[in-house]
Design a protein that fits this description.
Strand order of the largest sheet: 6-5-2-1-7
Number of strands: 22
Structural class: mainly beta
Strand content: 35-45%
CATH class of the largest domain: Alpha Beta
CATH architecture of the largest domain: 2-Layer Sandwich
Distance between the termini: 29 Å
Largest sheet: 5 strands, antiparallel
Order of helices and strands: EEEEEEEEEEEEEEEEHEEHEEHEE
Number of helices: 3
Number of domains: 3
Length: 307
């Protein structure tokens, strides 16, 4: 999450220490709480002990259109930099009425079940919390986690892939009312919500890869008011894929540059890959996925997508 200070939106307004998680159709709202320290500056140099402040983040994400909105509430202390656009509240939040959602290992109708696979750490379900073994993950040695929704057929749909660096913490699942999305919460040792990763429960799962140069490339777009603007290529493609109904799970770095986008499909997902061709600007070809990927389809973006 990018650090910025913004005003509290009129709807919804959440208690700073609530650890609230709520869904309104395809939109999830949640809060995270963290305590930080900021050096006290005197004449350009540190002087005196750092000042502590508690930062509460109210985070809103709409998975149906892939947009996000952050607000930051400071309980104590102050943060020096103000977002110059902090007073421009997002009209899309008006009328949002998220319903409190309890953590659960299953979707509301019981049809889907949460499953966590860890690499570099160990853990187990205890009630509705997937708890890490003590000291199995840390900031120095984060563990990799894959979160799945297990379908009635027994098949697994990859919903999220992320790193965990919270020792003695846990992962909890908050399902949308219709079961199409899950907000995977990361709790610290005090059971406070420290971070959140959100994803879908349907496939195919997709991985998006851009090389370093393309990640820095900006392309034409329009701002929220519909005026001409520019945007980095990666978030533009992410939004286009979500708008096309794609379960985009991973957005990462390509090992090499290419001119034409290649969509790699795991066995059985060739048709799904071909359907994605029209969602990628500049065209794409489809090839077999021949290496281990957590996703069913990998989109390796070429420079033609930026033209």
């Amino acid at each position: 999450m990018n650090l910025a200070l913004a005003l509290v939106v009129s709807a919804p307004t959440l208690a700073a220490d609530s650890g609230f998680v709520g869904w309104d159709k395809g939109t999830v709202v949640f809060t995270t709480v963290s305590t930080n320290e900021q050096p006290v500056m005197c004449g350009g140099a540190d002087c005196g002990p750092p000042r502590s402040y508690t930062e509460t983040v109210e985070y809103v994400r709409d998975l149906t259109r892939d947009w996000a909105y952050d607000t930051y509430l400071l309980e104590t202390g102050s943060f020096p930099a103000l977002d110059p656009q902090a007073d421009q509240l997002d009209a899309r939040l008006e009328g949002l009425a998220p319903q409190p959602t309890p953590a659960s290992t299953t979707s509301k109708d019981g049809a889907l079940k949460a499953e966590i696979v860890l690499q570099g750490a160990t853990g187990a379900w205890k009630g509705n919390r997937f708890e890490f073994t003590a000291k199995s993950a840390s900031k120095a040695r984060p563990a990799k986690a894959r979160a799945y929704a297990v379908l009635p057929s027994g098949q697994k749909a990859l919903s999220a892939s992320f790193e965990v660096s919270v020792p003695k913490g846990a992962i909890v699942a908050y399902w949308s009312p219709d079961g199409r999305y899950v907000a995977w919460g990361i709790e610290d040792a005090k059971k406070q919500l420290a971070d959140m990763f959100v994803g879908a429960t349907w496939g195919p799962s997709v991985e998006l890869l851009l090389d370093d140069a393309l990640s820095q490339t900006r392309v034409s777009s329009k701002d929220e008011a519909g005026k001409p603007s520019t945007i980095a290529l990666r978030p533009k493609l992410e939004r286009q894929l979500w708008a096309a109904g794609v379960n985009l799970v991973v957005s990462g770095r390509a090992q090499k540059a290419r001119e034409t986008t290649v969509i790699y499909a795991a066995k059985g997902f060739e048709d799904a890959a071909r359907k994605l061709v029209g969602s990628v600007p500049g065209g794409a070809t489809v090839e077999a996925l021949t290496w281990a990927s957590p996703c069913d389809v990998v989109v390796a973006v070429g420079s033609a997508a930026a033209k």
